[in-house]
Amino acid sequence: MAAASHNLNRSTFRLRLPTGLEIAAFCSFIFVVAPLIVVAGSALNADSMTFPPRSLSLKWMVMALTEGSFVNGAMVSLVVALVSASVSTLFALPVALVLRRMSPAVGRVLTLSFMGPLLVPSVIFALALYQVMMYIFGLTNLFVLMIGHIIITMPYPVRTITAVTENLDPALEDAASSIGATPWRTFLSITLPLIKPGVIAGFLFAFITSWNDFSVSIFLTPRELQPLPIKIYEYLLYQYRPIIAAVSTWSVIGSAIIVIAIDRLVGLNVFTGRRA
């Protein structure tokens, strides 16, 4: 009995070595997170843009919030992202509802067509978009920049709203219509509350995409109103101080907060086609 108990204790506390799959997953995680750690560590360096930091300081993080050039760029990015995400979500809402009523084969083809900006290399798509905008408008301004951002952000709300409408029971809408509700009243009272998670997730994904976009912005941004990614790029061309790492760190923190909000509100799996 004692020997059996001793063997049981040894098997209980036996050290389990990680499997090859677990090691590969951990290495992938480090590969993704390492650049963010380097940037954040450089932002905390008191003197120069080096990693690991030689001496810790928050002065660059504070300065990044007060530097006029970056503040103006952040305000432009905020306006463009809010407008682009709002308009693309409003456009995606009827698109997703129409796709829901089509046959599965046609719906897949049309959905794939709306995913076009995600399937083409970003630089090639941005160059083609620039040529189209110059042909139509003949110049670049804030309005043209917003149009470009609406086009590249629309796939996200289309995908998330389509994902939640796939599980929407048509009987609920039929029941509302059978008791005299108009189509508009049925949409506001039944359909919209049920698909609200997809709408919110699509808006937030579109906002993050617009806020962080560089490829389209570098072609379409006007000289006098440059978004934050372009400000960062131009700063790196001439200077290399920890303040640029601090600005990038704040941007990453903001994006992370939005992603956490998406996960808390609707779940990140809504973008893969499954509701939380």
From TrEMBL:
- The UniProt record lists the ABC transmembrane type-1 domain at 74-262
Transmembrane domains' residue ranges: 21-44, 70-97, 109-128, 134-152, 240-266
- Going by the entry's taxonomy, the superkingdom of the source organism is recorded as Bacteria
GO terms for cellular component: plasma membrane
Q: Which CDD domains match?
A: TM_PBP2 (cd06261)
A Pfam family assignment: BPD_transp_1
Q: How does it sit in the membrane?
A: Multi-pass membrane protein
- Compartment list: Cell inner membrane; Cell membrane
Keywords in alphabetical order, please: Cell inner membrane, Cell membrane, Membrane, Transmembrane, Transmembrane helix, Transport
Example GO BP: transmembrane transport
The family line of this record is: Belongs to the binding-protein-dependent transport system permease family.
Supply the name of the protein: Putative spermidine/putrescine transport system permease protein
